[in-house]
Amino acid sequence: MKTFKFTLRPLTPFGTPVAGDTLFGHFCWAARERNGDRGLAELLDGYVTGRPFLVVSDGFPAGLLPRPTAPDFALGHAIDPARRKRARTHRWLPADRVGEPVPRWMAELTASDTAKPLVLTQNTINRYTGTTGTDQFAPRQVERSFFAASVQLDIYARPGTGIGGAAS
């Protein structure tokens, strides 16, 4: 089955991480707008029987993949404490080296600082009183992820077999 890679260049800050489930939700919303409730329901039918029509990854820094989640000994870090410490702070691996043996691939760990978090203060004005206040009108801090102009994010998508039982 073919895997597609989409590369995005963020132009504005994001309020949430670029997560696969959020991207999938946007795709479903677009499918519903185009094909109606019935069309979306047909696409989603395969999920309950293990035949998804689409699987979408999170957004990753361009050219990188997240380090595998596995015990340190399986990744070749159990012996050297310095390598274990580095592996905790460097969580990205080059995507073009994915076919190499895991210990050799893990030697390529790198850091990536694609998004810079920034905390902003927001509030909501109560239209009855013309002021902020408590509860939903209280000032609050929210974190946004800002990206440098050169940053690109890779998203992978793989069509499944959920449409009529045949591969897409």
Helix-residue proportion: 25-40%
Find the structural class using helix and strand composition.
Answer: alpha+beta
Strand % is 15-25%
Say how many strands there are: 8
Domain module tally = 2
Mean pLDDT reading: 81
Q: Order of helices and strands, N to C?
A: EHEEEHHEHEEE
For the report, how would you describe the main beta sheet?
Answer: 4 strands, antiparallel
Number of helices in the DSSP assignment: 4
Stretches where pLDDT falls below 50 for ≥5 residues? 164-168
CA-based shape = extended
Tell me the distance between the termini: 8 Å
Specify Rg, calculated over alpha carbons.
21 Å
Describe what you observe in this structure.
With 168 residues, the protein is of the alpha+beta class. It has two domains: 1-62 and 115-168, no CATH class; 64-112, no CATH class. Helices cover 26% and strands 23% of the residues. The protein has four helices and eight strands, in the order E-H-E-E-E-H-H-E-H-E-E-E. It has helices at residues 20-44, 72-75, 81-89, 102-106; strands at residues 4-8, 54-56, 60-61, 64-66, 92-94, 115-122, 140-147, 153-159. Strands 1, 2, 3 and 8 form a four-stranded antiparallel sheet that branches. The protein has a two-stranded antiparallel sheet with strand order 4-5. The protein is extended. The model is unreliable at 164-168 (pLDDT under 50).
